[in-house]
Amino acid sequence: MRIAIMGSSLLAITLSLSACGVKSATDAKKPAQVAAVNQGGWSAATVSQLQKAIDGRGAHGLDKVQFSVHGAPGSGDAALTASALAYAAALSRGVIDPAKLYDVYTVPRPNGDLAGGLKTALASGKVGDWLESLAPQDANYRKLSVAYVALRKQKQNPAGVIPDSGKAITPGSTDSRIPAIAQQLVAFDYLDKAAAQGDRLTPAITAAVKAMQTDYGIKPDGAVGSDALAILNLSDVDRARAIAVNMERLRWLDRNAPATRIDVNLAAARLSYWRDGKLANVRKVVVGAPDKETPQLGSPIFRLVANPTWTVPRSVQKKEMTGKNAAYFRKNNLAWKNGWIVQQSGPKNSLGLVKFDMKNEHAIYLHDTPAKLLFAQVQRQRSHGCVRVDDALGFAEMIAQDEGVIDKWHQARAGKPESFVSLPHEIPVRMLYQTVLFDDDGEPIVRADPYGWNDRVAVALGLGATTSYRLKANDADVGP
Q1: 283 CB burial (10 A radius; 0-12, 13-18, 19+)
Q2: How far, in Å, are 84, 188, 189 from residue 4 at the CA level?
Q3: CA of 461: how far to CAs of 162, 181, 243, in Å?
Q4: What is the four-CA torsion angle of 270, 293, 261, 352, rounded to 10 degrees?
């Protein structure tokens, strides 16, 4: 960005955002918003603060988003105001509107009074401080910012840190690249940290490689060849891109998240239960397969369902149950009811023994499952779209206890037919997608992008797409 100052205070400001065909949420502000800010409120000092803030946009992963600034205090106040509001919107709500990137996105977003905030900031002469306050202020966002700036400053290695010699590393052999390979397998959750020792492709490391190869549709021979390296070998550019994308996703989120809530990270297939502002529980989940993605929803749990029945959706009924005979129906406890196939209550029910009923039009909810072995997998994107919870009965017990309905829940569980226990307070659930997690030391770790959803955000941020391997969509079981 180049800003020219002529005379004592002349500064021309115009704003231009290019998002590769994606219309940005920070495109031209409505005239009413600009008019809401007092004209004549800009000074050389506040213009300088705006310039400095935009110059420092790399701290937010926005250095590839083009901002051009032209204008002058006095006669150019309207242009300055429009530019400030546009950059403020980028920091407070994100550069792009996720509802325009995805078919479904209903997670609550920030919706502050930017015009009023700018008016106050101009009056106090603290435009820079106000702009900086709009971005997320939590520790994780700051760590992502530090990591992104560091990656952009250093000489980047476009090929990654693990060189490909063209010859596969076979099980049992030694190679100087094994420590780096093992470290990345740990980061991707395929290998226990204690097993990442030495420069030999041990049975433990070989097993981790085979599991990864299976998930990505590569022949699971345990050898580390070009294909396996392509998955593991993230370059500095790849890491920076992923971090910038995840910073953008954090800007989409309400800064005052409900103190009691459930967050489901679809990319990592993990659930976090927050109670009164404290992290009360973390557990594995199984979410939608890559061709049956769980949408990014904001939707509350309003009741627990004991011994649930399952009404099979038309899509599953048509694709996976057409032509099934009476023996199949008996084996799976299925029956026709009012034109629908319904699976009766019981331990073999696809919803297991508990359903966490949610309010949304997409028939997405949390539930138990008889397919317990799926929780042992690293990539747990295996369902038809709903979220299966590890030890769901234990989680339901926790929710019922915290909500003061434990006695009602026990009575419902003891009954054979499907029973419902309403919660006195709805618990908000946010289905999120974050591909950067944090290790035990609080350092960011770039994980897999199982749905391939990073690219559309990265392109909109001017960071381009990637050609990395994608998680293979396998045949999920019949359950939701």
Answers
A1: middle
A2: 17, 47, 50
A3: 27, 30, 12
A4: -70
pLDDT tens for residues 32-69? 666 556 555 889 999 999 999 999 999 999 999 987 66
Q: Are 435 and 246 in contact (CB under 8 A)?
A: yes
Q: DSSP string spanning 98-161?
A: HHHHSS-B-S------HHHHHHHHHHHT-HHHHHHHHS--SHHHHHHHHHHHHHHHS---TT-S
How confident is the chain (480 residues) per 10-residue block, as mean pLDDT? 30 37 43 60 92 95 82 77 93 96 95 94 96 96 95 72 87 94 92 93 96 90 92 88 97 96 97 98 96 95 96 82 84 87 89 96 95 92 94 98 98 91 98 92 87 94 81 68
The pTM score is 0.86
Q: Work out the number of other CB atoms within 10 angstroms of the CB of residue 177.
A: 19
Per-residue pLDDT of 217-259, as tens digits, reads 889 999 999 999 988 888 888 899 999 999 999 999 999 999 9
How far is Cα 384 from Cα 312, in angstroms, rounded to an integer? 11
| Cβ pair 130, 118 in contact under 8 A | yes
| Closest alpha carbon to 354 in 401, 306, 315, 386 | 306
| CB 254 within 8 Å of CB 430 | no
Helix (H, G, I), strand (E, B) or coil at 309: coil
Write out pLDDT tens, residues 260-271: 999 999 999 999
Backbone phi, psi, residue 205, to 5°: -70, -40
Are 416 and 306 contacting, i.e. CB atoms less than 8 angstroms apart?
no
Q: How far is CA 79 from CA 37, 68, 129, in A?
A: 12, 11, 20
> What CA–CA distance (Å, rounded) separates 128 from 187?
37
Q: How far apart, in whole angstroms, are the C-alpha atoms of residue 129 and residue 122?
A: 11
Closest residue by Cα to residue 110 from 252, 249, 247:
252
Q: Look-up: residue for tokens 């435009």?
A: 127
Pairing outcome for strands 261-265 and 10-11: unpaired
Write the DSSP string, 190-223: SS-GGG--SSB--HHHHHHHHHHHHHTTS-----
Q: Is 262 helix (H, G, I), strand (E, B) or coil?
A: strand
CB contact at 8 A, 255 and 240 = no
**Residue 465: predicted pLDDT:** 85
